[in-house]
Structure formats: C-alpha cells, structure tokens
Amino acid sequence: MVTVFGLGFVGLTTALGFAHLGYQVYGVDANPERSRQIAGGELPFLEPGMDTVLREQLGNRFFVTDDPKEAISQSEYIFYCVGTPYGADGAADLSYLFQAIDTTISSIEDDKFRVLVTKSTIPPGTTAEQIAPYVQKKGDVSRQLGIANNPEFLREGKCWEDFLHADRIVLGCSDPVSEEMLKKLYAPMGIPMFCVSPATGEFIKYLSNTLLATLISYSNEMAEAADAFGDIDIAKAFRILHMDQRWGGCNMTSYVYPGCGYGGYCLPKDTCALHAQAADKGYEPKILGQVISVNAKRFSVMAEKITTGLRKDSIIGILGLSFKPDSDDVRDTPAARIISLLQEWGYTSLLAYDPAAMEGFAKQYPHLEVRMAESAGEVCREAEVIAILTAWEEFREPAAACTKPILDCRYMLTAEELGRPETEGKGMELQANTGGRLEWKRSNLLG
After folding, report:
1. Candidates 3.90.1640.10, 3.40.50.410, 3.40.50.720, 3.40.50.1010; correct CATH number of 207-442?
2. Which of 266, 272, 402, 409 is catalytic?
3. 266 included as an active-site residue
C-alpha cells in the first residue's frame, strides 16, 4: 500500500498511477479545499484524461484522507510530492517536505519497514546531507525507515501519458532493502529502471530541467539576434531547424523554439535552485546564470515590442494567461510578468482571454487589474493591438481573421498560416516584421 503526500500535478498523477497498477493508495493534502475537490471526483487543475481516471479509481483503489495516521499505518511506501519553491536567493525551500516527514514519523506506531520516497525536486546532496540526518535524529523509529528519491519527468498537459509511458524510472537509493522494494513496486510497468545514488537521482532531475531551460533561453536569444539582423522569418527558421536528422526524432521542438520566456512551476524554480546550490558549493555555473538572465530579460523585450508606437490609453489584447497551452497553470507564467510591466509603464487598459486559466490568474495575481473577455474573438474586436502570450491552438482562427496588429510572442503563426483577410485587394497587405508582429498595413504600391 502507498501513501502520497501532496496532490498537485505530480502527487495526484503518482497516486492515480499506482492505483491504476492495482495498489491501494491514500492521498493526503494540506489544502482542505483541494482535498474536498478531489474526494468529490473533481480535478483541481486541467489535465486531459485524468478526470476519467480519478472517477474510476476514487473509492476503489484511491482514497483521499485527512487522517495520515491511518494511511501510514497501512502503507509500506510513503511518497512526498509536496512543493519545494525557491526563495529570493534561488535556494529550494524544504519546509513543506520536512513537515510531511514529521507527520509521517509521528504517525508510526509499529515496527514495519517503510521507505520514504522524495518525488519533489530537491538539489543534489539534499537526501544525504539534510533528509537522512533529519530522520536519524528522530530516534529508534529511523531504524525501520529507508530513504530514497524518485524524480519525476512529467509534462503538464501530458502527465497521465508520461506516467504510463515513461521512458525511464530513476531510483536514488542508499540501502538495498529500499531499492528492492521500489523495484518491486514499479515492476508491473515494464519500464527500464536505473538504480543510482541519491545524489545522482537528484542531479538527473536538475540535469533534465536545466537543459530544457537552456534550450528555451538559447532560442530566445537567437530570436533577438534575428531581430537585429532583420528580414528573418523567425518562426520558419526554427521550424526548418527542427527538420535536422541529428535530432534523431526526439520531441524537443517545443523547447528549441523562441517564445516570451519559460515559466510554470518547475523550470524557473529548478534552474534558480541548481544555480544557487552550485554557487553555495563554491562553483558558479556561468552558462546557467546566463540562461536565467536571458529569461528574465525576455519579459521586458516582449513588453517593449507590444508597446512600440502605442498610446498609453490604447486597449491591449492579451491572448493566453497560462504558462503553456492545454494547461490552467499560471504559476510564474510569462503573461503575469509581461502584464505587470505593461501596467508599470502606464498601459492599464488590458483585455485578456484564456480558455482555461482566467479564474486562476485572477486569484493568483489580484494586484494585476485585467478585464477578462469571453472569447478570443472579443479580444480581437475590441483591442487595438493583440499579443499572443500562450500558444493555444484555438487562437489561430481568430488571429487569422483579425486585421489588427498582432504581436505573436510565441511565434505560433506565420504569414502563410494567416492567409488574407477580407481587405485583400483594397489597399491592404500583410507585413511580418522582425519582431514577430504581423500587421496589415496600407500598401505603397496600391497608394
């Protein structure tokens, strides 16, 4: 039996995944509202397909409980999927993790061996240098506890698919009993397992996320270089780059592609945490520092493009508030950074639309006063300039029909994809400028 602390994207996916494999799973979350939602069969976030799985497993093999003592008494595996946010210095905050460990240990009243598995992202060396000593200080109970980490490689919007069809399972273990228990737990999946030291397991997760962040910042820097050269179709250039056979068919194209900066929960947090941790150990990773710097600058670059030649009282349309399409997650979303800058600069008439994230955005950023629209079409009709900040597929059609200036901050559109509006033949032509702004302007040839 399995207990999972934290029922966010990672935790709920993990819990339902093990239930799907046939294990009895208990879910514990510190947020009562989230627990009630899940216990009622409702997902607290947008994740395609997982709502069906939740309804199938709830009350069958998956149980939400507010009594961790009961859950832990019946479980051999305790998974920690709680948040590890980064602070002002970039270091990971482990307080939620230690609180969950305290709850676990205080709930144990027998001598059954349990393995405590950290799935939350933690800097290399954390298990050996902080978690293990912390548990050992708890006295005799520590003798019947194994400690391990098991990093996740889930993409929001594809969490369920990524769990079921993972390409690898990494087990960072320091004792043979925990290793064998975890191998047995995952055996039904038939997926390659790699048993490594705890520090190696922790490092692999950061290795993955920081590479993705590097690819995004590299792509954004190249997009700015293209702006400087001029007369470059940035979207087409990158799409042709993706055809290189040396990519070996891997699906990295969404990362090697420019946009308005990486966001979400993982990449900003993990990139800053690894940089801070390495600096604390006496080594400054300069490439990683530049990745962070390029990303931080990207928000102002996009805000400047949006406002170039624009009156302060102009209505600016925002298409997309989530940090990526097919998700309602607005944590550290580039849209919030860009909107904040626009308002700081005096542009306060903002009209936004997102298919899934408007309510969450308003709750997460109450200080950003943004009027919400009912559709992308409404934004295109009312705004004087439109900025695409999230690459939702449903934005293609209204953007194609729009005759207003469009700043495509996600480079999702090309001149060919937009086609021609009704004004064709009436003195209007499409001009795609180097900054990604697609504008219908009066043709010089037609007077």
Report:
1. 3.40.50.720
2. 266
3. yes
